[in-house]
Design brief:
The structure is a single chain. This protein has 13 helices and 8 strands. It is an alpha/beta fold and 310 residues long. Strands 1-2-3-4-5-6-7-8 form an 8-stranded parallel barrel, surrounded by 9 helices. α10 runs parallel beside α12, α11 packs across α13 (281-304) and α12 packs antiparallel against α13 (281-304). The chain is globular and about 60 Å long. The relative contact order is 0.16. It binds glyceraldehyde-3-phosphate, 1,3-dihydroxyacetonephosphate and zinc ion. Glyceraldehyde-3-phosphate is lined by residues 24, 50, 52-53, 83-84, 181, 257.
Length: 310
């Protein structure tokens, strides 16, 4: 089937209580690993590219590789999404290139400016049949020693979320409930504000909710990187149990990039450690691709609950 928007997969996710994984893509091996996993798990999937990924891989290469994936697995619903669109122009470029979903990340602006830029993207995207994810709240890591009012200012305000969705007409909303990007999400214990998620869901029950910064930072992969010459001390992510809880509590899209980066790096490092004379890229990229595939499959089947929902 051709690329789909996220509309139907999110409807199903809200009705049946699971989340769709959105995985960041930067090259052929990552795309292949993700769609191989989606095929094995019989799961819908969102492939997403950031503006820096687009700069790296080049938009036409990305679209052609995604096209090849669709031909290989015609029964798997695949959406192509712009992750963290920084401005209207980037969103327009992706929409014109055939993306079926874009994110406009106005979370760096104040509320009114965020509403204005989101609305501008929504108007253009909808005129082309493309859906829009917006973001409200700040995803910066919330350290243990940050006082409560400073932390509260970063979380998404449920009443603002309701107003924001009504005024912008966005199709899904990324919220801040304690996750953050990268490999260092929590200094102490992992903590997510499920109470805020519940309140937001109560106010906008029909709007799919998105969780960014949601990698588990899988301990086995961090250990593997470190065992084979890496140095990633103290990395910590969102435990699988919390992501599972989010998946059955109204979160429809869960973003994963860091875990894929760790899997790829761990796979490559092991080959170089075991055989320092290796220099054929196929030799070190094949196990890396396999490790990404297993990582994605595990999330779909054991954590997000999206397997057999294609
Ligand atoms: O949230 C951002 C994603 O992890 C993409 O990161 O801009 O380095 O491609 P990137
Ligand atoms: P992680 O850094 O936790 O993988 O989050 C990725 C993300 O939110 C991409 O938008
Ligand atoms: Zn993100």
């Amino acid at each position: 089937m051709p690329l789909v928007t996220t509309t139907e997969m999110f409807k199903k996710s809200m009705k049946e209580g699971f989340a769709v994984g959105a995985f960041n893509v930067n090259n052929m091996e990552i795309i292949q690993a993700i769609v191989d996993a989606a095929h094995d798990a019989n799961s819908p999937v969102i492939l997403q590219a950031s503006s820096s990924a687009i700069k790296y891989a080049r938009i036409n290469y990305l679209m052609k590789m995604v096209e090849a994936a669709l031909e290989e697995y015609p029964s798997i619903p695949v959406a192509m999404h712009l992750d963290h669109g920084p401005d209207f122009e980037t969103c327009r470029m992706c929409i014109d290139a055939g993306f079926t979903s874009v994110m406009i990340d106005g979370s760096k602006y104040d509320f009114e400016e965020n509403v204005a830029i989101t609305k501008q993207v929504v108007d253009y995207a909808h005129s082309k049949g493309v859906v829009v994810e917006a973001e409200l709240g700040k995803l910066a890591g919330i350290e243990d020693d940050v006082n409560v009012s400073a932390a509260d200012a970063m979380y998404t305000d449920p009443s603002q979320a309701e107003e924001f969705v009504r005024r912008t007409g966005c199709d899904s909303l990324a919220i801040a409930i304690g996750t953050s990007h990268g490999a260092y999400k929590f200094k102490g214990e992992a903590k997510l504000r499920f109470d805020i998620l519940k309140e937001i869901k109560g106010r906008i029950p029909d709007t799919p909710i998105v969780l960014h910064g949601a990698s588990t930072v899988i301990p086995e992969l961090v250990e593997m990187c470190n065992q084979y010459g890496g140095n990633i001390p103290g990395a910590k992510g969102v435990p699988d149990e919390m992501l599972h809880e989010a998946s059955i509590s109204g979160v429809s899209k869960i973003n994963v990039d860091t875990d894929l980066r760790l899997a790829m790096t761990a796979g490559i490092r092991k080959v170089f450690h075991d055989d320092p004379s290796a220099f054929d890229p196929r030799k070190y990229l094949t196990p890396a691709r396999e490790l990404i595939k297993e990582t994605v499959k595990h999330k779909m089947i054991d954590v997000f609950g999206s397997s057999n929902k294609a």
